[in-house]
Batch of 3 targets.
Target 1
Amino acid sequence: MTSLTENRDKIQTHKQKAGQLVAQMTLKEKIHQMVHAAPAIERLDVKAYNWWNEGLHGVARAGTATIFPQAIGLAATFDEDLLEEVADAIATETRSKFNMQQRYGDTDIYKGLTLWAPNVNIFRDPRWGRGHETYGEDPHLTARLAVRFINGLQGDDENYLKTAACAKHFAVHSGPEDIRHSFNAVVSDRDLHETYLPAFKACVQEARVEAVMGAYNRTNDEPCCGSELLLEQILRGAWGFDGHVVSDCWAIRDFHLHHKVTANEVESVALAVKHGCDLNCGSLFLFLEAAIEQGLVTEKQIDTAVTRLFTTRMKLGLFDDPADVPFSSIGYTETDSPAMKELNLKAARESLVLLKNDGLLPLDKSKVRTVGVIGPNANNRRALVGNYEGTASRYVTPLEGIQDYLGDDARVLYSEGCHLFQDKVGGLAAAGDRSAEARGVCAESDVVIVCLGLDSGLEGEEGDMGNAFASGDKPDLKLPGMQEELLRIAHESGKPVILALLSGSALAVNYADEHIPAVIQAWYPGAQGGRALAEAIFGDISPSGKLPVTFYRTSEELPAFTDYSMKNRTYRYMSGEALYPFGFGLTYGEVEIEAAALDTDRVTQSGVAASIRLVNRGDRACREIVQAYVKADRAGTPNPQLKAFRSVELEAGSSAEIELILPFEAFALCGFDGSSSVETGSYTVHIGTSQPDRRSAELTGQTPKAFTLQAEA
């Protein structure tokens, strides 16, 4: 079937119908359609429509919906097929709820078909509070997952979009949150085009994303929602973007209030529309009437913007007979269905990353009689869901997952152990008021599972309700409050200890790496997360995720948070050694790359094909991620960079043969002017189940296979 994004004739029909409708509107009516809460125009049979809806990892903020793992957890799966499957499920639930809401005349916020997801900003600094909304620190991984996520959201119907996706926040945005409304992200042309833009480009040119959202900050002095460089020259010019641009919420007022690049509201809205921002999340665009009166904007520019907006609504089938729109028949019972719960559990299972295992895992259920579960995230629902979340019909915390899994076969003892970030749980108590209880639980237990980390109250968006400190950003990479002290209590009890980290970002868990025999990074694993964690701990499944971010040893080795240069940031440019590297993750299997070969020793225009044979020499089935990294063998170039990956399922003792394709562009790097080229010289391709760095080899006991190729101009 031809997808709508490829059906140019149908898109042209939608555009023509949109233009004809807009031509019948008054200027005031058109302007009111450019704010997110667009009112009805009854004389033209235009219903009210609220553009603001969220679908980052499930339908958000509109009642019951499936809460999948947070985006960073989905990234840890390194599974493109799963990302598309999850996104398709989100689109199904969006349509399911929309169809029901329309029947009852509910056109409120979070009730539309325009989903402001995915977030494809690069998670360049682990202190950034919104990093868990992203797919991590690598442009290639982010691009590949984002393209498939958008494909899932928008569907493959030849006439209509299932939902409309939106790539955000364009561009060069990753904190700090507390100054985002006034911050100027200064970035070189090389870093702009080599790191910050590739995922957006893939969203536009490959996935044909319907919308792009601008960022709050300035980039190189221009506010992103009114940037000539970003919106005109790059997005619509070089990339040929044909959808609509939406501002981040209330970002237009920042132009004059905080960025100080305009004098007032009228100048701000004129700057945004002039450079191609079509939709205002907020209401400031109502000043466009004054902007036209003052000659700062033309009505033709308004017509262009509104036509783009109604083209999107036409693509969604909102002006056609529901009988002609296949997604209009999706019933409400598709939301939160058994199939959705099972897919959610699958995603949670694949997102778990085993960071350390000295042989303790998996536990043998028959050999434990009492299991201690301690820690502030053991029974914390907020640590399941991250932000931009819906409401689950049932939540399974780690404690509940372990209780459900063990049933009557073993006793489960529980202590909160400590507050998530304060020094006590009880308001009138002394510091450490749950320490004795935690010691008691450890003393009575055969094994202790410690659940630590963060939740969306500690890392998130500036201004979020309940953000406890640092405006959503982390002040450092340490476990907050008394969490490390609690971990020491567990270790000093002499009992075997498993650490489960629930967080949306990297933490410097150096003590755990030195002293705790097993460590699992569980992210914000969604409403089924506790069940998946229990299955992994007791060996029903093998953890198989890989880190989409670098785990550093300390924040002191990082550049200033406000420095947007990529020097010494992320695995691609860092000079030090990671605690746990990007791309790393253990399994219960024993998978090796038995053989690998390239089809050429030259970098050709048609790319390079790698043939790989894997074998699982272990006695457990598992999933493994084959990864290919490319290094230009000359001074001043990045470390080996991920350029291809594939998820492979292997039964115990089985083997598999796969192929990875490295396109010609995989060998390209950007010059100082931002232009991309493949230079003459030598390149090394590394193929394995991790990065080719020393620390990954130390942790996995394996070294990726290396191949040298030559490129000629």
Note: Residues 80-103 form the longest helix (24 residues).
Target 2
Amino acid sequence: MDASDTQAFDACLRDALALTREWVPRWLDKLHAAIKDREFSASQLSEKQVLMQARTTLESHRDLVATRFLAAFAESMENALPHTGTGSRRSPTVSFDELELMGDDQVQETVELARVQQVVKMAVDEELVTLTALLNGAQGLAVVNPDANPLRSEVVVAALMKALKGLHVEAAVRSRWLQVGAMSLGEALREMYANLSRQMERAGVKPAGYVVTQTATSRTTPGTAAPDAAHPDSVPAHEMLGNDALLTLDHLHQLLVGNLDQGDDGPSDGGASGSGNAMVRTLASEVVTLMLKRIAADERLLAPVRSLLQDMKPALLQLARTEPRFFADKQNPARRLLDAIIARGLAFTSEQDPGFAAFSNQTRGVVRALLKPGADLAARFPAQLEEFQRSQAAAVGPAQVQARGLAVQTLVRVEQRNLLAERVATEMRGRNDFDKSPGVVRRFLTGPWSQVVAQARLESTDAAPGESAAMRYTDILPDLLWSSQLALASLNRPRLVKVIPGVLRTLREGLDSIDYPREQAEAFFQALMGLHEAAYKTQRNEPPADEQPSIQPELDDEPWMQRNEVRDTCFMEDSLPDAPPTTTQPAFLDTQPLQRDWADLKAEMAVQRTSELPVGTWVDILQDGQAMRWQLTWASPHGTLFLFTGGNGRSLSMTKRGLERLLEQRRLRVVADHGVVDEALDEVARQAWLNSAMAEK
């Protein structure tokens, strides 16, 4: 990204805040005047009273609304940019899971928000397109990503809603403010967007380009009618019962909570499922159709996989007639089968990948079994789920299962030892003689030697207290720290000669106990013997004066692993593509103090880290110039180590820092960090939300 473009982007955000401070008071004045006009022209007393309450409440809260709106907008603008490199899904306005937990009032508020956003979006559409292209261009994007515009209208409206919800005013008053002020809010934003676009054009920013993408064509299954071309999101015509079946947010909410009235055209279960209600069946079919349409357009799945999933549509639509909420129950066999097929399908990036042919044949068999005529469809899903899971488990060889189990056990032990080593290092830093020792010794003690002591403590549960190796490895600390201090050791050469052999022998024994690399150990021993030699040759007639301890930063190394542990866990060490392979062993060379505080640098880097990935996440990792598909199948209890499994059953482990490094280097791309069905259902909820905004009040 060009430096001038970066400056223009930052300047645009600053100008947006400045302009917002100007137009918000004007918008509140227009809102007050509009409410007052409606109040005078209202013919019904009840409407006049509601408007009067809205006007007087606005008069008393005007300054507070402005202050909170500006604060919420500034905060929302900072959080509105998408995370770089994660590929995570866009946050839905209302998620499918949340909708089921909402009350009727919350649903109504969400619908009100949709209507306001729709009015505002229609008012600013042309200016927003121009500004988004310019802001994307300033960020170095070649193709427009609407989410990369932190000033988009939904961000502004969401900030307004957040500010209003923080006020102690009635919901009816807030609703009236939004209804009356939506149009003038859109006009104010349109003017701001136009001003910002002109400023960016004067700064020489080149806009990003828009691309036209073709939507996935829907497949028609034999025996079913094609969807209405004018309404691609609708169910086939024979499933529809008229305009009442429009999937609004309120209808979807009522479907999920089971509050729709029962009909007399089928079996009734007292309202438990709503299966006897024609509208319930129609809405359920609408949800299934929309869900499958979203999945059909999801390019993370290979085209043959999406095709097979679309072939399941008749069976899923038939199931929706008897179990209209099966898709919302993650434990329902049909939902679990759909999730299992999609999760396995994400493992493949090519039809030539090993195992894809067997997976495709297995899935095709599932579809054939579900499409057979018969009234026992609901009973077939559990059997097909069990058979599919058994087949997929059998595809993984016993050796791979054993290797994965060994990898998990090893990683658990590694994390336990490293956490204990951190406590051991803290104990060492608390010693009175620690800070005065040379940096090379301090780093050795808080690095590899803390690992030695931790390993010994983990293995010494059955040893007598005085005989444990951990005790011997700790007992040498006074002699080691004393002998490494030139000023002290040079005063007592007889003691120095006496303690050196025992110290060196114990050090070698401890390092061998953790299979510490010999070349790394020798580097430390050379440095330590140099200190001992200097102390032996130094002549002092007087006790040394008190000296200030040398202050050097302690190296913050990632979890250390032994060579056999690296092998057993298939540990990924090639974290730097253009540099020699890194090791997990600490270095012992003296370093210059950092010009800036290490904690500050770590805090800055942590802002850009997005390694908090849930187990089950699918990622592509670039290795040797080729992207490989892996799934995060295990994370250590403290989140320091991760184990990935490939579609071929292979394992790959890495540390948290290694994962963050791959993200920073853009060698790791998150493919799916949520279930594909979950995301599709969230899009269904979003479509219902938009339908509610378009519906007449």
Note: Residues 342 and 425 are 46 Å apart (CA to CA).
Target 3
Amino acid sequence: MKLKYCICCPIVAAFFLAACSSIQKTTLDPVVVTENASGVNYRGSYPLLTDIEHTKLDVSFNWDSAYVIGKATITARPYFYPSDHVILDANGFRLNSISLVTQDEKKPLRYTYNGKKIDIQLDKIYKRDQKFVLYIEYVAMPEKLKAGEDIASAGDRGIYFINKDGKDKTKPRQIWTQGETECNSTWFPTINGPQEKMTQDVNITVPNEYVTLSNGTLEYSSLNGNGTRTDSWRQEQPHSTYLTMLAVGNFAITKDTWRDKEVNYYTEPEFAPTAKLVFGKTPEMMEFFSEKLGVEYPWDKYSQIVVRDFVSGAMENTSASVFFEKMNMTAGEYLDENHEDIISHELFHQWFGDLVTAESWANLPLNESFATYGEYLWDEYKYGRETADVKGLEDMMAYLAGSRKKQVDLIRFDYSDREQMFDEVSYQKGGRILHMLRKVVGDEAFFKSLNLYLTSNKFQTAEVHDLRLAFEKISGQDLSWFFNQWFLASGHPVLNIQTSYDQVNKQAIITIQQKQDFEQTPLYRLPISIDIYSENNTERKEIVLTKQNQTFNFPYSSAPKLINVDAEKYLLAEKSEIKTLQEYVFQYLHAPLFMDRFEAILKLENMKKEVLARQTIIKALNDKNYVLRQLAVEFVNELEPAEKAGVYQQIKTMAVKDEVSHVRASAVKILAKAFTAENNEDVFKLTAQDKAPSVVKATNEAHQ
């Protein structure tokens, strides 16, 4: 699943300039979360009692009642110990019959049912090498499930009938499912949890006018002669039961390909003309991830479908991801927000989460941290590190803002509700931790380790120690220290950094203190790069911070222009450091990374009374990174009158011609705010015709 965070530049600045941030968060995965209580039980892996090898479903629908009329044929065996009964999850069913399928007949079986679980008595004791086949006829009634009693919240119904009576003329009729975490048992009998993997056949009977989608490939369609059709979908590779999906509705299918596999985009017909604009980079993403990981996209096809009223941002069902309705975009809306992060996130899940699945919800970051880091990897490949580091900044901000409310381990076994695992720790913090791990071991070892992890555990489940062992096998290093402090502990470093130059002894001096709360947070081992700048030269020094207070001395012939601690800007940490005006200006002009310039501009904005600070921010109007251009535009009202006059024409040009719509919108806003004495109508006439809604909105507000 995808959590989405929308961050605007003024809030970015506020985050770093104040002790508390006011991050604007749009959460697309509504969940019911309860606080951890004292004495919470250990939340480990579910016991493996029965192994479902294959499930065949025959389903049709009663739209009026929102019922699923189903027949399930389940091939299973005892996992290890002999057993004469099976327990299946089935939430809110009416059970018509349960039988044992033999070569000659269906033999009725005795069972008990409490509304959530079926306890089936088999005809004998089966050993682990003996399969049995169950046949269950049932009616699932998801809309009768009561939130707070049968399910935790309305977002746990598992299957949803949208506009079921067709009375809402603004909304299409649709059916779609959402199985994570344990919701698929509301529409077919199964075993809940990420640990249970199976192959499947799903036969979906619908009125002829509707399109269907499920996992795997469409084997055939059969006309039933009564205005209905049955589509038969087959997935021959095993996946976790929560990843089973189906969708039904009036969808237009835009066809694409990757290598020899189908890549299809399902949208409402109105948005078919922009389907390739929105999703069309998918084949390139598939190629990039396949090459980078050394593991080819593992499933038979990849489809992406946009539905109405989805309960989260998106969901990575195997070979068939579901997206919320904001992915139905016009070409203009695409300029403001292309949602490539969501697309890359769900696609990366097809490896991390679907091919290899976290063996328990406690290990969820093995799914979500990787999918979040997949967003960074795609941006880095497609748009360069500058853009990727903006993504990294957003993730760091999201985590640090949330960390002020709670401190929890990344891999944690003490949650009171499994939905608590879907947070800024599992997503954003985990993504940043993977980036640090990449920097610690190096790119070659990082991606070879991921390859080993995927190939060793494909079509299986894994826990965090499987990941650590893969990295240790490839790198030859003991990485317990890294995994213990980042994956198995809470918090992050809080660093106080002081730099100086000893003129007498000709030494650059760096003192770093770890100031985090050591009762909750580890004393970290932190490999750190330090760049020491002269006028024409840069020297990199590598240190390892292991103590609460350490000082490092480096011979240097003259006073440095800048000592840049954490030169790779990869530490997930709160850092406090005081530099001079001249050092921040030098950092903006000469340090190579987006984060170098970003940190410098934020500090220079706090020195706005200084002419040199304002002059440097004015230079940022031409920065190659849109975030810094936008920060600079929004600072214009702080300039002196002569300085404002000097940038007026540039702001007018940016309002019309900047390549990023949000920068154009900010330029329009600042024209209306800072240049009220000027006649800006020539610009506003042009921006009123901009294709991006954000610019048009800013123009309309400028006239109010």
Note: The longest helix spans residues 365-383.
